[in-house]
Design goal:
By secondary structure, the chain is α+β, with helices and mostly antiparallel strands. The protein has two domains: 9-44; 51-130, 2-Layer Sandwich (Alpha-Beta Plaits), CATH 3.30.70.1150. The chain has four helices and four strands. It has a four-stranded antiparallel beta sheet, with helices on one face. The radius of gyration is 17 Å and the shape is globular.
Length: 137
């Protein structure tokens, strides 16, 4: 199946450079297939019914529309799961935000999906581990 995507030129150039470092056997199509496979495997590892702890790291452009308001709105809906946050101004436009999370897996993953899906979030990653069910959270 063929499809097309639009990406900024600098992002594509960096991606092509990464592919070139892998050697002659790699190309854009194979690299994108690898990314898709990796994403699907990560999705399978989710533990929706378990209690989890984790961190969500996001880099975003706070000048994008009303992104800051949307980030705040989503986070206010998950105050039970958010243990702590750290906000760092990287430069005039970009911010780094790190959330420490704890709670039922389905809620933690739902929160991450909502935040990382917002327009203006350039990069983000959720890292989680299941906790012992006998621990009081």
């Amino acid at each position: 199946m063929r499809f097309s995507i639009a990406v900024p030129e600098d992002l594509l150039n960096a991606f092509d450079a990464q592919i070139a470092r892998r050697g002659a056997t790699s190309n854009r199509s194979e690299a994108i297939r690898d990314l898709i496979r990796s994403s699907l495997v990560r999705e399978e590892l989710r533990t929706p019914d378990a209690q989890v702890i984790g961190s969500l790291t996001m880099i975003y452009d706070h000048h994008t529309g009303d992104l800051t308001r949307k980030l705040d709105e989503v986070q206010h809906d998950y105050t039970h799961e958010i243990v702590s946050t750290m906000h760092v101004h990287l430069d005039h436009s970009n911010c780094l935000e790190i959330l420490a999370l704890r709670g039922q897996g389905s809620r933690v993953y739902e929160l991450a999906d909502k935040l990382l899906g917002l327009r203006g979030v350039k990069h983000g990653e959720l890292t989680c581990a299941a906790t012992d069910a006998s621990l009081e959270l």
